[in-house]
Amino acid sequence: MSDIQSLIETLKANEEIARKLFDIEVSILSSDHSDDLFEKLVKRIKSGFDIPYVWLTLLTDNPIPNLNEKFRDSYWLQHHLHSLDSSELISLSNQGNRPLLSNTLDELSHLIPAHYFGEIRSLAVIPLILDQQLVGAIMLGDSDSERYHPELGTFHLEQLSVKASICLSNVISRERLEYLATRDPLTGLLNRREMEIHLQHELERCERYQASMAVLFIDCDRFKQINDQYGHDFGDAVLVHVAQGLTQLVRANDRVFRFAGDEFVVVLANQSRYDARHVRQRIEDYFEANPLLMNRKLVPIRLSCGISAPSAEQASSVKALLKEADNELLRQKRQRGDSNSARR
């Protein structure tokens, strides 16, 4: 092959790579959320470049809002997202955050998820950069030890790094704004406005499909006394502790909201009033056994919980459901002799 023919073939190959990179960029630019961007990115790279093993690695202290909830709810993320501490990506930082190619993987084996062990013989690590900081990497693996030989050029991989990083930065900026608009800033739970929207959707679903649902209205007994005795820092820590506990205790398709002050609402999808009583007991038992430990002090936590559920005999509204649950909560507090029962 002549030099001119070789040059033409090289130009054609580079044009084809550039076209595929452009297709990837167009695809991920349409993403509204990070999980959607991740899925499109991995699938486009895998199919466009015929790469057998593609996944993402993110630092555990990454800035992506609400990633833990997305990870919990997404089977795809659980199998294509790998978390590492920043120290474990030091090899990439030592590269000046440029792509790293290797076919001697002894020192990089910690970057490979367990379900790929023994299958990958060469690896490309492509950095994801946000605000000039390394937050993770796109990982490309192959059973061919020569595919990502360290002597190969990385120009196209650097292009992919820049394109993916810019798109991810744009998506995270939108997610941060959305997070601030929909979340309680102290606990990270969905706020009251989101609760009302979700409850209305659940009521419509129940009516359409003759399904069931239940609502728990929860508040912390003697919360004012906690603030008075220990200080407001302890009060805030109690609210965060309760929010985290409630989130752990309910199923993935249930939702926990901060209503106001020390009040929380839990919406239980496809569960009856009878089911909700068991959930209430589980919640009460959990917090009785798990007081808040802060500054070497144990702060006991007791919750009151009212229950409501839509009635098949009459139409329900968001307002009526909350009022019914709140009234039961107040009755429970009066029965316990809680001096805060007349808090409203």
What this model shows, in words?
This protein is of the alpha+beta class. It folds into two domains: 3-182, GAF domain (Beta-Lactamase, 2-Layer Sandwich), CATH 3.30.450.40; 192-336, 2-Layer Sandwich (Alpha-Beta Plaits). Helix content is 49%, strand content 19%. The protein is built from eleven helices and eleven strands. The chain has helices at residues 3-29, 34-48, 67-73, 75-80, 90-93, 155-182, 192-209, 223-230, 232-249, 273-289, 318-336; strands at residues 53-59, 81-84, 100-102, 122-130, 133-142, 213-220, 255-260, 263-269, 292-294, 297-299, 303-308. The strands form three sheets. Strands 2-1-5-4-3 form a five-stranded mixed sheet. Strands 7-8-6-11 form a four-stranded antiparallel sheet, sandwiched between helices. Strands 9-10 form a two-stranded antiparallel ribbon. Strand 4 and strand 5 (133-142) form a beta hairpin. Helix 1 runs antiparallel to helix 2 and helix 9 crosses helix 10.
Helicity range: 40-55%
- CATH architectural arrangement of the largest domain: 2-Layer Sandwich
What characterizes the major β-sheet?
Answer: 5 strands, mixed
Quaternary state of the chains: single chain
How many helices does DSSP assign? 11
Name its key features:
single chain; 344 residues; alpha+beta; Beta-Lactamase; Alpha-Beta Plaits; 2 domains; 5-stranded mixed sheet
Summary of the model, kept short:
It is built from 11 helices and 11 strands. It is of the alpha+beta class and 344 residues long.
Topology:
Blueprint: H1 3-29, H2 34-48, E1 53-59, H3 67-73, H4 75-80, E2 81-84, H5 90-93, E3 100-102, E4 122-130, E5 133-142, H6 155-182, H7 192-209, E6 213-220, H8 223-230, H9 232-249, E7 255-260, E8 263-269, H10 273-289, E9 292-294, E10 297-299, E11 303-308, H11 318-336
Parallel strand pairs: 1-2
Antiparallel strand pairs: 1-5, 3-4, 4-5, 6-8, 6-11, 7-8, 9-10
Helix pairs in contact: 1-2, 1-6, 8-9, 9-10
